[in-house]
Write a structure and sequence with these properties.
- The chain is α/β, with parallel strands linked by helices.
- It is built from 9 helices and 8 strands.
- The strands form 2 sheets. Strands 1, 2, 3, 4, 7 and 8 form a 6-stranded parallel β-sheet that branches. It has a two-stranded antiparallel sheet with strand order 5-6.
Length: about 240
């Protein structure tokens, strides 16, 4: 009976798909079998972060020539992390997928976004000992229902074999959304907003901090300062995507 019921559900779903086809949230085209929200064509054509890029912050060089080396900004003002990387450029279908995942609770997109994380983590961060996510304040967590960065961090931990710290890094203050603020305001907004609740998880270890998007870097930098102050031997940053200036 369960098999017949499953067949009936698939028939109904296929029938409804003919009348009300599911459309890609990015291009508007009809989604294929197994595709959710974003079609394969859009995700396949989404721009990736290409070398050469800064060996510290991971920002690609605009001329695209030469070899990877530290950029002038990182040389003049070294960030509190050892290395930051993102496989995708924040734009197009990836930007749409992040927004659907983060703000419209389309959790099935973790397969797509988590796939980018799992794909690149072993090569970039294979020696990582602890993975942590940028935390949400309890009020924001109650409002959103889940921490999107923690889901991504779990993918990074699984693909590298590292330990996942679920709440060793916590957010103390309920800050304003960073997307509403300028660069200098973002730094002030998150200053003193984080703390380490269990320093023994990070002390003397290599740590990978995971978030969804790297824009100005204000949030991840503040988290990295706290992790370094707690005794982490090294702290790197991985995001699904990053903005390209």
């Amino acid at each position: 009976m369960a098999t017949l019921g499953g067949q009936a559900d698939r028939i109904v779903e296929a029938f409804l798909g003919l009348i009300y086809p599911r459309l890609c949230a990015h291009c508007g085209g009809v989604l294929g079998a197994g595709e959710r929200f974003i079609c394969g064509g859009c995700t396949g054509s989404s721009p990736r972060v290409r070398e050469p890029y800064c060996t510290i912050c991971g920002l690609p060089f605009t001329d695209g020539a030469g070899t990877a080396h530290p950029c002038s900004v990182c040389i003049k003002s070294p960030p509190p992390y050892d290395m930051a990387r993102a496989p995708m450029v924040y734009g197009g279908a990836v930007k749409k997928a992040v927004h659907l995942y983060k703000y419209r609770h389309k959790r099935s997109l973790i397969g797509l976004l988590g796939g980018y994380v799992a794909e690149c983590s072993p090569a970039w961060f294979g020696g990582t000992e602890v993975v942590a996510a940028v935390p949400l304040h309890k009020l924001r967590l109650a409002e959103r229902g889940f921490n999107q960065s923690l889901f991504l961090a779990r993918q990074a931990a699984l693909s590298t074999g590292a330990m996942l710290s679920v709440d060793g890094l916590v957010r103390l203050r309920h800050t304003r959304p960073q997307m509403d603020l300028g660069p200098s305001e973002r730094e002030l907004n998150v200053r003193g907003a984080f703390c380490v609740s269990r320093p023994e998880e990070f002390r003397g270890r290599s740590v990978l901090l995971v978030d969804d998007v790297y824009t100005t870097g204000a949030t991840v930098k503040e988290c990295c300062r706290v992790l370094k102050a707690a005794g982490a031997r090294s702290v790197s940053v991985l995001t699904v995507a990053r903005t390209i200036k």
